[in-house]
Amino acid sequence: MIRFFEKDPYAPIQYSYEVSRILYHKKSRFQDIMVFENPHFGRILVLDGVVQMTERDELFYHEMLTHVVMSSHPDPKRVIVIGGGDGGAVREVLKHKSVEKVYFIEIDEEVINVSKKYFPSVAGCIKDKRVEIKCMDGAEFVKNSKPDIDIVIVDSTDIVGFARSLFTKKFFTSIKNCLTENGMYASLSESLHFHKEIVIEVQQTMKSVFPVVDLYTVPIATYAGNWWSFSIGSKKLDPREIRAKNKFRTKYYSDEIHKISFMPKGMYKRLLDNKLDW
Amino acid sequence: MIRFFEKDPYAPIQYSYEVSRILYHKKSRFQDIMVFENPHFGRILVLDGVVQMTERDELFYHEMLTHVVMSSHPDPKRVIVIGGGDGGAVREVLKHKSVEKVYFIEIDEEVINVSKKYFPSVAGCIKDKRVEIKCMDGAEFVKNSKPDIDIVIVDSTDIVGFARSLFTKKFFTSIKNCLTENGMYASLSESLHFHKEIVIEVQQTMKSVFPVVDLYTVPIATYAGNWWSFSIGSKKLDPREIRAKNKFRTKYYSDEIHKISFMPKGMYKRLLDNKLDW
């Protein structure tokens, strides 16, 4: 049997997958890109040796990254998605009828091309005429945006890699400056099992910029440490509250999942005080 | 580097761990038992090639297996723990001041001996005079118990192995017959990511015996599929309600975790109707 061994120096468990077939494997200007097929997960996208997405379980990550913040906003019209070259986050954003414009900012054009070819159910949506694709650095794009954006979503690779610049105070400040009064920002923030210190660091940095900051989670089998966290920075609105008016179709996300996915307040306080002992 | 590769034929991702030192490795009458040391997780207990417990993260499993059902009962006095030879479930049960008697039924005495020696922080508690250890088949013990038990907890190995007999209608009926009027039963029921069909099967079988059945989850990094589920069968009481009077010290479980850990009702219905599409 041929196996793929994930190459994540920061994960204390190494994951490996059966490989039925390698569909694509090339280096882009920015990273090593591979697509292979697995009997259980279907097609799997790998960047620099780390699994980014599988056909079977991408729904958990993309729905939760997107709908929590989109549903907390009363009327999200203009959205920026940074990273997420596979198109999954954009697909979910477009389910919200209020959306008029999505700036889709992916630094590596090759990831978009590979996804269009090998993951049509994920990337198909980016042909939508509300989507404007720009292959450039997300930090640059946000810095030069006018303050007319309702939601910014960051769907980057792991924080402990070349996405580091998307988790700085400088970047968070640029995001805040391009948001409207009810504006909100959501991003992955790593595993509470394996990278609790990074989660706390991201949260503390966000808190130095945004008046409202919060944290929610979802278990994802294919990401190291699996107890995946997302961080929200908001200029005013409490993201625990659901304000979306229209229904949309999802497989995991729902109003009830929205409510239980946020870290309970007592535990959240202990996390930020670094008093969770594991 | 020396690595341990988990041998779980039912997991679509294979986990592997760095091995600093092998502390124990022998076959008992029932299974292959190994203890090794890992830089991140500390000591790890492996049965028949599958990780059962690590020093660092056993708290998630043991606290959640035990305290949800124990805290839903107004006054648990007499408890049976089946399996869990490491002693972790018994340790947590003993934190409840109401407890007068714990029958600790482990089929493999060697697991108890190994845990006493290599995991004293887990197994130390079983010296408590309220604990009566019996090395025998849990199904046999329950069948012959008088109906004076408040809580039964099953802490077995994976369902798809030699623990299969602990998930049958016959066994659930024996449990129900030994429970008092407010009696409740809790058990692991595998991963919602990897073994949804097994979760549904266990739930349906429980429903054919117990008037009240429910499901809750916790993400555990070291169990395949990680989104770990537990099933509760209850003769009368709703396990979502907390009735415990005394406080006890935990690292993860709390009243607020109790509430959010249950699967939201809409999603739970869709699970049982096999309409969750992943």
Number of strands of chain A: 13
Mean pLDDT metric of chain A: 96
CATH architecture classification of the largest domain in chain A: 3-Layer(aba) Sandwich
Based on CA inertia axes, which overall geometry of chain A fits? globular
Question: In percent, how helical is the residue content of chain A?
Answer: 25-40%
Characterize the largest beta sheet of chain A: strand count, sense, and whether it forms a barrel.
Answer: 7 strands, mixed
Radius of gyration of chain A, whole Å: 18 Å
Strands of the widest sheet of chain A, in order across it, are 9-8-7-10-11-13-12
Low-pLDDT stretches of chain A are none
Order of helices and strands of chain A: EEEEEEHEHEHHEHEHEHEEHH
Q: What is the structural class of chain A?
A: alpha/beta
Q: Which homologous superfamily in CATH is the superfamily of the largest domain in chain A?
A: Vaccinia Virus protein VP39
Overview of this protein structure:
The structure is a homodimer of 278-residue chains. Chain A has 2 domains: 3-54, Spermidine synthase, tetramerisation domain (Spermidine Synthase, Chain: A, domain 2, Roll); 58-272, Rossmann fold (3-Layer(aba) Sandwich), CATH 3.40.50.150. The first copy, chain A, has helices at 58-72, 88-93, 109-118, 120-123, 138-143, 169-178, 196-207, 255-261, 265-272, and strands spanning 3-5, 14-18, 21-27, 32-38, 42-47, 50-54, 78-83, 101-105, 131-134, 149-155, 179-191, 212-219, 227-234. The first copy, chain A, has 9 helices and 13 strands. Chain A starts with a strand and ends in a 6-residue tail after the last helix. In chain A, the strands form 3 sheets. The first copy, chain A, has a 7-stranded mixed sheet with strand order 9-8-7-10-11-13-12. The radius of gyration of chain A is 18 Å and the shape is globular. Chain A has 278 residues and is an alpha/beta fold. In chain A, strand 4 and strand 5 (42-47) form a beta hairpin. In chain A, 28% of the residues lie in helices and 30% in strands. The A-B interface holds A 3, 12-18, 38-41, 56-57, 59-60, 191, 193-194, 217, 219, 221-222, 225-227, 251-252, 254, 256-257, 259-260, 264-267, 276-278 and B 3, 12-18, 38-41, 56-57, 59-60, 191, 193-194, 217, 219, 221-222, 225-227, 251-252, 254, 256-257, 259-260, 264-267, 276-278. Strand 2 (14-18) of chain A pairs antiparallel with strand 2 of chain B.
